[in-house]
């Protein structure tokens, strides 16, 4: 019985280590931003890099779903309007 329990615990330990995946550098918040950007750019193909430099709508640019990079949405219209019209900083 003890041998069976030790075997089961050993098998469980091996399986749990096998399932752990290393986090890519570009997703690791503990890495410096320069390393994260370099890693993300190295993983992107030329088409993905080109697409990210162009807008997909008035206030957004696409992400890279394959790498888990989300869309980028901007919202600076009202802030600039308040600042320009009233001479004060926007919200």
From TrEMBL:
One of its GO terms (biological process) is carbohydrate metabolic process. InterPro entries: Glyco_hydro_3_N_sf. It comes from the Bacteria. One of its GO terms (molecular function) is hydrolase activity, hydrolyzing O-glycosyl compounds. This is Beta-glucosidase. It comes from Bacteroides ovatus (strain ATCC 8483 / DSM 1896 / JCM 5824 / BCRC 10623 / CCUG 4943 / NCTC 11153).
């Amino acid at each position: 019985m003890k041998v069976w329990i030790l075997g089961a615990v050993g098998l469980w330990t091996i399986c749990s280590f096998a399932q752990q995946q290393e986090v890519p550098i570009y997703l690791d918040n503990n890495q410096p931003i320069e390393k994260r950007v370099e890693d993300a750019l190295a993983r992107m193909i030329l088409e993905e890099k080109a697409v990210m430099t162009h807008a997909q709508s008035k206030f957004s640019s696409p992400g890279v779903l394959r790498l888990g990079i989300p869309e980028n949405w901007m919202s600076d219209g009202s802030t600039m309007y308040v600042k320009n019209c009233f001479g004060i900083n926007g919200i």
